[in-house]
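ok new one. same drill as before - structure tokens go in, u give me an amino acid for every spot. 220 of them this time. try not to just spam alanines like last time pls lmao
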């Protein structure tokens, strides 16, 4: 795929209705549990203010809320208005009043407060883009205490690989997305780890999911 022609802003404009179903199916209904695992690894704490970047339909909210509690806060960002509308509905349905929403692209984010934690769930695209995002958000994060966490899929390196490969192919086709399975053959520990300070790594769910966490670098 020619990265210069790819428009990330248009992703999920076709598939937003199917999104939650496919994510839950793929993770056998354990999605919230898996998000919580990533957040725990990264050291999210009660009362933290969390940036939920590329929040989509708000699938991370339940896991985040279960740790930060009512004194914490979520700032949820997504450029896709359809996805964000579902996230807003999810917040309203659950009575979560500690969530602010914005359709600002991460590249142009402007916050009036600092945040303790930044969460990127299922929104890995490529290193250059993610580095730019980290640069943008690091302006609002404490270099010592701020924590960043990426959680995403990868192709397992074990016996499940030939089984997962066609399943992911079907998922990607059904969602009508522009990314390919080839892009899931990445090395998250090395790639994301190199963009964070003191990084921690965990692979789980049969080696299909990863969480990488750390602190903002001084060099963004
Ligand atoms: C795969 S979804 C992930 C949604 C959610 N984090 C989850 O775990 O279910 C990726 C989301 O990233 C959003 N996105 C892509 N580029 C973005 C940008 N530059 N700024 C804000 N959101 C962006 C898309 O609109 C989409 O909703």
């Amino acid at each position: 795929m020619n990265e210069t022609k790819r428009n990330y802003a248009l992703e999920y404009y076709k598939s937003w209705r199917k999104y939650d179903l496919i994510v839950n199916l793929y993770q056998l209904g354990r999605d919230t549990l898996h998000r919580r695992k990533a957040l725990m690894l990264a050291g999210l704490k009660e009362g933290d203010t969390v940036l939920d970047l590329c929040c989509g339909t708000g699938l991370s909210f339940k896991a985040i809320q279960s740790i930060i509690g009512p004194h914490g806060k979520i700032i949820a960002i997504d450029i896709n208005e359809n996805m964000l509308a579902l996230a807003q509905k999810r917040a309203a349905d659950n009575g979560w009043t500690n969530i602010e929403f914005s359709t600002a692209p991460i590249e142009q984010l402007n916050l009036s407060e600092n945040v303790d934690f930044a969460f990127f769930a299922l929104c890995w695209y490529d290193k250059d883009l993610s580095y730019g995002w980290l640069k943008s958000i690091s302006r609002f994060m404490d270099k010592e205490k701020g924590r960043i966490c990426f959680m995403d899929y990868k192709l397992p390196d074990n016996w499940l690989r030939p089984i997962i490969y066609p399943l992911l192919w079907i998922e990607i086709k059904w969602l009508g997305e522009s990314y390919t399975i080839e892009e899931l053959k990445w090395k998250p520990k090395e790639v994301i780890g190199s963009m964070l300070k003191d990084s921690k790594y965990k692979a789980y769910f049969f080696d299909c999911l990863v969480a990488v966490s750390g602190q903002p670098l001084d060099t963004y």
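Residues 161-175 form the longest helix (15 residues). and btw Residues 9-215 form a domain with the Rossmann fold fold (CATH 3.40.50.150).
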